[in-house]
C-alpha cells in the first residue's frame, strides 16, 4: 500500500509517516519500482500501535523503546506518565482558576488585566511584605476576585499578612462569607481557625449567621472565636460558650469582657448572671475557675448578680469571698 493510501486509512498524514520513517520508527518494508514507499499490513499495524501509545502521552522515543525493546516493562513508564499527567492537570487547573479570576474582576482593558495578574502573583509570593502589599492594593487599586483573597487568607501563616487579608475581605462586599464557610469544614485545624477569624471581621448578617452556626462546630477553637465575635455583636447565643471559656481559663479575660458588654442590656444581664451563678454552684468546678467566675460576675449589673455576690461574700474560698465583698462595697457606694 502506498503512502497516500496509508495516510487515508490510518489518519496519519503523509508528512508524519515520512517523519516516522526518518526516525526509524515505522519503516515501510518495500519500495515500488519507481522508488515509492510501500507499506505492508504489518507496517500499518505498527502505525496504529505508534498512534495508540502516543495517545497516552509517550514521546516518540518512548514509543520506539516500548515497541522495539523485548525487555521493556511498561509499569515504570505508566507510573511516570501518571505523574506527568497529574502535574499537567494541576498546571492547567491553576491556569483556568487564574483566568476565571481575571474574568470575574471584569477588567476594562489590558492594563487592568496586567495589574490583576501582578496582584495574584504577589499574593502567592514567598515574601510576606509583597503578600501584605498585595492584600492592601486589592482594595485600593484594581480589585482582586474574592475567591483569590479567600484562598490566600486560608493559607496565610504570617499574622500581619493575615490581618491585611481579613481587612481586604471585610471590604470586598458580598460573597466572602459563603466562601469562608467552606473553610470551617476543612480537615486542617489551622484552616478552620483562619476561616472563623476572617468571618468574625465581616460585619454582615450572613457572617453573623455563620458565627451562630459555628457555636456548634466540632472544633472547640472555632466555637471560642465565634463566641467572642458574637459577643461583640450583641448576640446572647454566645453566653454559654463564653462562660465555658471562663471556667476553662482560655481567653477568659476576653470572654469576661464580652459578657460585660452583653450585660449592658438589662434582660441579657439577668441571663448572664444566672448562667454564672449556675456554674459557680456546680460542685465539679475547681477553685481557680470559681474565682474567675466570681470576677466575671462582678462586671455584671443587676439584682441577680448582687444577690449572688452577697452569698459569695460568705464563701469558703477566701479569694472568692474577698472579691465578692469588695464588689458589693463598690456597688453600695454608687
From TrEMBL:
Keywords for the protein's UniProt record, in alphabetical order: DNA-binding
Protein name (record): DNA-binding transcriptional MerR regulator
Gene3D superfamilies per record: 1.10.1660.10, Leucine-rich Repeat Variant
Lineage: superkingdom: Bacteria
Gene source species: Thermocatellispora tengchongensis
GO molecular function, one term: DNA binding
PANTHER family: HTH MERR-TYPE DOMAIN-CONTAINING PROTEIN (PTHR30204:SF93), REDOX-CYCLING DRUG-SENSING TRANSCRIPTIONAL ACTIVATOR SOXR (PTHR30204)
HTH merR-type domain segment(s): 1-69
Amino acid at each position: 500500500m502506498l503512502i497516500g493510501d496509508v495516510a487515508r486509512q490510518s489518519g496519519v498524514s503523509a508528512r508524519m509517516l515520512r517523519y516516522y520513517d526518518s526516525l526509524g520508527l515505522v519503516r515501510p518494508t518495500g519500495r515500488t519500482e519507481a522508488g515509492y514507499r510501500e507499506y505492508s499490513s504489518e507496517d500499518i499495524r505498527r502505525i496504529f500501535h505508534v498512534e495508540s501509545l502516543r495517545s497516552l502521552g509517550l514521546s516518540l522515543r518512548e514509543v520506539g523503546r516500548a515497541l522495539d525493546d523485548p525487555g521493556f516493562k511498561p509499569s515504570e513508564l505508566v507510573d511516570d506518565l501518571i505523574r506527568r499527567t497529574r502535574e499537567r492537570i494541576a498546571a492547567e487547573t491553576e491556569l483556568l482558576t487564574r483566568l476565571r479570576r481575571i474574568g470575574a474582576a471584569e477588567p476594562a482593558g489590558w492594563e487592568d488585566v496586567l495589574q490583576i495578574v501582578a496582584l495574584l502573583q504577589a499574593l502567592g509570593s514567598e515574601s510576606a511584605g509583597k503578600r501584605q502589599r498585595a492584600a492592601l492594593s486589592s482594595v485600593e487599586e484594581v480589585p482582586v476576585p474574592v475567591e483569590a483573597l479567600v484562598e490566600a487568607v486560608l493559607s496565610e501563616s504570617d499574622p500581619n499578612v493575615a490581618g491585611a487579608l481579613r481587612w481586604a475581605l471585610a471590604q470586598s462586599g458580598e460573597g466572602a462569607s459563603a466562601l469562608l464557610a467552606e473553610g470551617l469544614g476543612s480537615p486542617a485545624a489551622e484552616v478552620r481557625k483562619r476561616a472563623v477569624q476572617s468571618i468574625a471581621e465581616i460585619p454582615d448578617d450572613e457572617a453573623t449567621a455563620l458565627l451562630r452556626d459555628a457555636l456548634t462546630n466540632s472544633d472547640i477553637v472555632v466555637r471560642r472565636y465565634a463566641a467572642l465575635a458574637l459577643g461583640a455583636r450583641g448576640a446572647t447565643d454566645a453566653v454559654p460558650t463564653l462562660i465555658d471559656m471562663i471556667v476553662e481559663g482560655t481567653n477568659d479575660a476576653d470572654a469576661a469582657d464580652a459578657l460585660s458588654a452583653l450585660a449592658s442590656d438589662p434582660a441579657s444581664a439577668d441571663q448572664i448572671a444566672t448562667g454564672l451563678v449556675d456554674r459557680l454552684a456546680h460542685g465539679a468546678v475547681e477553685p481557680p475557675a470559681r474565682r474567675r467566675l466570681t470576677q466575671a460576675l462582678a462586671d455584671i449589673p443587676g439584682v441577680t448578680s448582687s444577690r449572688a455576690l452577697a452569698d459569695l461574700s460568705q464563701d469558703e474560698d477566701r479569694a472568692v469571698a474577698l472579691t465578692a465583698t469588695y464588689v458589693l462595697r463598690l456597688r453600695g457606694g454608687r
